[in-house]
Specification:
The complex is a heterodimer. By secondary structure, chain A is mainly α. In chain A, 79% of the residues lie in helices and 0% in strands. The longest helix of chain A is centred in the middle third of the chain and has 26 residues. By secondary structure, chain B is mostly helical. Chain B has one domain. Chain B has 13 helices and three strands, in the order βαααββαααααααααα. Chain B has a three-stranded mixed β-sheet with strand order 1-3-2. In chain B, a hairpin with a 2-residue loop joins strand 2 and strand 3. The longest helix of chain B has 37 residues. Chain B starts with 5 loop residues before the first strand and ends with a helix. The chains are: A mainly alpha, B mainly alpha. At the A-B interface, helix 2 and helix 3 of A face helix 3, helix 4, helix 5 and helix 6 of B.
Chain lengths: 167, 355
């Protein structure tokens, strides 16, 4: 049952990811990317990480992609993207092949993850995934979390300064 | 003999579980569609009376068959797809606006447990399609997906008015989503759970844990009045109801994002507006007004509260003029967002002191 669901979702994810780069129209590319994100959310649920799934939809599908679509809308790329691009193909192909090689290298010689730690399905179902993540973030790893939030704060201030005419 | 009811699970009794789930989904869906249809009728009647008109009277007794006649008319009209539009996105847009509204309803509890016996075993079925561990987050996520319908409609129509409506709506929904999301945060700081079922259960305790006031339930509207106000105003903006209906301001934009739509696709946009209204009313009821708790039997309380919310939304529409666009942005970013943040801080401090 779960395997069938996994393969179905995986097929949809791969096909929509393929269409992200195949589509001539940026709007359709964006739509396909949203589909890919939704498939990833399904994977998170199957990995018993419902909190991650909700955040995936909220942040990526709900916020970032809306901004991207918004930009597409404001730029109104009509005929400019219809013409065929070819000069980026060689570089893109080279990069993709390189990434594939590196990934294969890591899989072959890296240490396997997911061999089982303290957090098993029973722990997740008794505590709840949200509580576990909250505890990890605000108790165990408080300092890294605060450092990351300062980084975000700097980025926000930077965005405000960039968008203002006079500071 | 008192038996403790068994909980239905997929692994123990797969067929019974599937059957019960399908029945629950069908009932929730049909009831929602019916409420959507008759919400249009109620809106025309109520606004008519408020403006000393009659509203629909001709079709059926007191005009009761009007929504069905409207539906049939729109269904059989010619469906026009503009030749310069992105046809795929154009067809997809009305579906993408309607689906999130219906999906959100699946996590809302309508009542307590229903008990029935099958082959001598007593089963308890919660009157809720799915009790997610992350219920509130799921609703916020689905509300975020609702933007796409309007964005795509504006983009795909390839028309100035639709594009302007779409841009306005995107900006508006992104701004108000923040305030709404942050106002909900204060609720689950108090309830200490994200499951909507748990939130309803927490609201059935006596007010502020005081036994002497046990006749007043612990509805979160009493301890979070600010969050309630922010939620209602923000949701009204998020579902584009008057006074925040700038995306379809007909005096400036013809009909906004749905200018180019006709026939059933137009009807879907219309249905989505009312479905969103039902969803928002149901969420507000669950989070702030104690869900299905109250003097009557479970789901009757729930429907009563939802209907009063919808009456309130319709009433607002008959009363207030539309906001100007800069006023809308000012309200969203400079008033509601700081208030929501302040509410979270105050709630946090109060929890540290008193709980």
């Amino acid at each position: 049952m779960e395997a069938i669901l996994f393969y179905l979702t995986a097929t949809v994810a791969i096909i929509s990811a393929l269409f992200v780069i195949k589509c001539r129209n940026p709007v359709n590319s964006a739509l396909n990317l949203i589909t890919t994100f939704l498939c990833l959310a399904v994977f998170y649920i199957m990995l018993e990480a419902p909190f991650m799934a909700a955040i995936q939809i909220m942040v990526y599908a709900g916020a970032i992609m809306v901004l991207i679509v918004f930009v597409i809308m404001l730029l109104n790329l009509g005929l400019a993207v219809k013409s065929r691009y070819s000069h980026g193909l060689a570089g893109g192909g080279f990069l993709a092949a390189l990434t594939l090689l590196v990934t294969v290298y890591f899989i072959k010689f890296g240490e396997a993850t997911g061999t089982g730690g303290e957090i098993t399905s029973e722990v997740i179902s008794s505590y709840g995934h949200t509580e576990l993540i909250g505890r990890a973030m605000f108790v165990d790893f408080l300092l890294p979390f605060e450092i990351a939030s300062i980084l975000l704060l700097v980025a926000i201030i930077g965005a405000v300064i960039l968008s203002k005419r006079e500071v | 003999m008192v038996m403790t009811p068994e909980v239905l699970t997929l692994s123990e009794t797969p067929w019974l579980f599937t059957g019960v789930m399908l029945v629950k989904i069908a009932v929730a869906f049909v009831v929602t569609i019916l409420i959507v249809a008759y919400a249009t009728y109620a809106e025309r009647k109520i606004i008519g009376r408020m403006q000393t008109r009659m509203g629909p009277t001709m079709t059926g007794p007191k005009g009761l068959l009007q929504p069905i006649a409207d539906g049939l008319k729109l269904f059989f009209k010619e469906d026009i797809i503009p030749s310069q539009s992105h046809w795929f996105a154009f067809i997809l847009a009305p579906m993408m606006i309607l689906a999130p509204a219906f999906i959100s309803i699946s996590v809302i509890p309508f009542g307590g447990d229903l008990e029935f016996s099958y082959e001598g075993i007593l089963y308890a079925v919660p009157m809720q399609i799915a009790d997610l561990n992350i219920g509130v987050l799921f609703i916020v996520a689905m509300a975020g997906l609702g933007v796409y319908g309007i964005v795509l409609a504006g983009l795909a129509s390839n028309s100035k008015y639709a594009l302007l409506g779409g841009i306005r709506s995107t900006a508006q929904m992104i701004s108000y989503e923040l305030a709404v999301g942050l106002s909900i945060v204060a609720i689950f700081m108090l309830s200490e759970t994200l499951s909507l079922r748990g939130i309803v259960a927490a609201q059935q305790l006596p007010l502020w844990g005081m036994e002497s006031f046990s006749f007043i339930p612990n509805w979160y509207i009493f301890c979070q009045p600010l969050a309630f106000g922010l939620f209602v105003i923000g949701s009204m903006a998020e579902i584009n109801r008057t006074p925040f209906d700038l995306p379809e301001a007909e005096t400036e934009l013809v009909s906004g994002f749905c200018t180019e739509y006709s026939a059933m696709k137009y009807a879907l946009f219309f249905m989505a507006e009312y479905a969103n209204m039902i969803t928002v009313s149901a969420i507000a009821t669950t989070l702030f007004l104690g869900g299905w708790g109250g003097p009557f039997y479970g789901w009757i309380n729930f429907l009563l509260k939802v209907f009063s919310f919808m009456f309130f939304f319709i009433w607002i529409r008959a009363t207030f003029p539309r906001l100007r666009y800069d006023q809308l942005m000012f309200l969203g970013w400079k008033i509601m967002l700081p208030l929501a943040l302040a509410n979270i801080v105050i709630t946090g401090i109060s929890i540290l002191i008193w709980l």
